[in-house]
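Input set for joint prediction.
Command: fold jointly, output tokens.
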Amino acid sequence: MKKLINEVDNVVNEMLDGMAAAYPQYVRRLDGLDVLVRAGGSAGKVALISGGGSGHEPSHGGFVGKGMLDGAVAGAVFTSPTPDQVYEAIKAANGGKGVLLVIKNYTGDVMNFEMAADMAADEGIQVEKVVVADDVAVENSTWTTGRRGIAGTVFVHKIAGACAEAGGDLESVKRVAEKVIANVRSMGMSLSACTVPAAGKPSFELAEDEIEIGLGIHGEPGVNREKMGSADDIVDKLLNKILAEGIYKAGDRIAVLVNGMGGTPLMELFIANRHIHEALTGKGLVIAKTIVGNYMTSLDMEGFSITLLKLDDELEKLLNAPANSPAFVQA
Amino acid sequence: MGTKIYDCISRIAERIIDNKDYLTDLDREIGDADHGVNMARGFQAVLEKVPPDNANIGEVLKKTGMTLLSTVGGASGPLYGTAFMEAGKAVAGKESLDAGDVPVILNAVIGGIQKRGKAVRGEKTMLDALIPALESFTEKMTASSDVFEAMDAACAAARDGVAFTRTIRATKGRASYLGDRSIGHQDPGATSATLIMEAVRDFLRG
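tokens >
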């Protein structure tokens, strides 16, 4: 395995220093912690904090900035951050109007963020949380922990962030975040596994002609292993699963996120997007906004995910509101 | 030379660190390939942060739990952190333990994990090792009153519990996303819980 790293044990630490050095106008790293907060602070507004394991860059530190997040907590690679780190992020980002935690639905993330919320509540800080669970690959049944949170989380950051920036109170910001969560669904696939630096080998093996459908963003195996097909076939497969949710109907205005997993060229993402538009428009859906790029990655994994968000007037307005963060800028 | 409780905690830490790759390999099959790495990082921190000269068992267990909580991450951090902190509460202030304290500690550990993880037995988690261990310990103590035999029985039951996790599908944690594909693989958490039980048993045997 070849990786552009120094010490395996130091990858998160050095990455955060590198991000802080790249974007001093946006972020500041809290001393001795794996937390990035807005360089200018968040006084007088509801603070939005997200985070999770590292390896999903630019999530989540890349979204700290005006109109999006106020703080991001980075855990070890693919490992939820610990409660003490989240707690420090809450204290530092709290601007006096309360804090909303945006959690992706993984057992570890939920437990660590909840413990941190309890600690902060003991200090008298008003903390609420939302849990994103947009991955339709996982059946939502009593037999699972519930659906995973994947790329749809980016829409939650953007829309709830815009609401908080516009002066929304904690209750409104949470309500908007939950509305996004109710209307956002995603599905991903991979062409190759990723290699976690500390493990030093790929998380699973795929033959030259195989793809993994319905996997998450941590190199965990997917729901099905299938034969490789064309980009259009793969897009159809993912879209059919998302559309089977019954949320998106002809005439609806929707936003689309075509998210790269880290190792797939933008060229291929655009090729996928071409057919996504063709297929959705063919079904009578109105695509109000499209975002293509690497937003919620899985290290060096080759693959992508499709996320659809059903919009109403409120969500569309907030989605189109200005944002200025290292990884998402919109005038 | 540290106190006995420090030596016991060190023995646990060494056992986990020695099995780092094994636990990570198990997690690669049904999870995200980090259980061993995270647990080893946490117990390395325990070796560095837990004071060797504190004889207060409750305090040492609590410090162990807090250290795990702030260094392990993932689901294992809160679960093992809570387990050790609850164990510490259960024997607060004590400087020595006897056979009667074993079920008290195990009950506290199980209760803490159930509360934090919202899991019950049979969901392919560490509870599938720990609950049978507690049952077998209690049963053996009642029959023979020999703490060594009872610890052996507890460890054997925990091992059986690990084997049982191979036969069931996961309904908690990341492995649950695999559905039936999780069957045939043993649970990494049940495995690490068993390694900890066995390290304590070996420590008691001297």
